Amino acid sequence: xxxxxxxxxxxxxxxxxxxxxxxxxxxxxxxxxxxxxxxxxxxxxxxxxxxxxxxxxxxxxxxxxxxxxxxxxxxxxxxxxxxxxxxxxxxxxxxxxxxxxxxxxxxxxxxxxxxxxxxxxxxxxxxxxxxxxxxxxxxxxxxxxxxxxxxxxxxxxxxxxxxxxxxxxxxxxxxxxxxxxxx
Length: 183
What we know:
Nuclear Transport Factor 2, Chain: A; single chain; 2 domains; 25% strand; four-stranded antiparallel β-sheet; disordered N terminus; alpha+beta
């Protein structure tokens, strides 16, 4: 009877480290393709879209910069409303990445949706060399007729020419505005 407690103690000493090694091996194998990872599992999971809060322009912002800020917010509102004309009214006909391509891509995306949303958070407005740049973070979602939802997040620098008194979008840097594919 005295042998049983010492046998159980020996098993505990060896069983716990062995179980930990097996667990670590299983975890390591699952992340390495070809080493036991299942290719039939679910597709890559997209990271969740962050919850943005719309921002307000600071009181010391100049009138041109404030107008550029508002133009970007209006682009987001037009996108969410499915208002192609309202969106394009804020884009220059000389849009560097092809106005026609933007128009057809936007029409295709919005025509095939039944609901949309967009949130814009302006992070910075700068003016230099006759241009006004608005750096914005945005989230948007598009719901399609089959009920599927395409939610995306991005950061775009919207570029406007200061000499254009209506400040229409001329170009952008970073992510395509509101993930309008093809531009």
